[in-house]
Amino acid sequence: MVTYDEIFRDTGRVEAFSDGVFAIAITLLVIDIKIPPHLGGRRELMQSLVAEWPDFAAYLTSFATIGTMWVSHHFIFEHIRRVDTLLFYANLLVLALITFINVPTQLVAEYLGTPGERLAGSLYTGTILAISFSNSMLWRHAARKRRLIADSVQNARLRRITRSYRVRPLCRLVAFGLSFWNVYAAMALTLGLSIYFTIPPSRKYGSEKEILAQ
Description:
The chain contains 11 helices and no strands.
């Protein structure tokens, strides 16, 4: 007889489905970059490319953000031994927000440098804040009372990772607040945070022996 635990023990299907969604979302970003029309010589082409800089800036920031979230998602599931119903829904929320990011990315690309840039920037950074918060919820659900965590994961490491997922949404909240004042600074901070959060987790947390020694 198949038990509840056996049904939800395999995380492979969740990871495979999630990887597919991440791949589609990150690919769709490049579709919105417009190719300049043929206007003549090199100078005209260069001017057209420079005029498209908001598209490139939005693409780069969103690509880095989705890439960071994919690394984080992969890292989380390296520590999970099984999934339950709530984790399924928490994971779907993360994926829903990941696929939605293309909308505020287009808004930023369209309105950067116009009077509507702050609203577009706040929607953009707000979406990334929501993604970060939902990702944190995903981890906290899995880590609470070690309900879904692999037995091989040390408690000290678990605590360090949990603290990290508390801090990440706060950093994104700073970028969101900054967007109401200076959208360019908010975008720069968003990109910087995404690059920083892409650092391999092992370099941040160290080996199990190093963590236990702290």
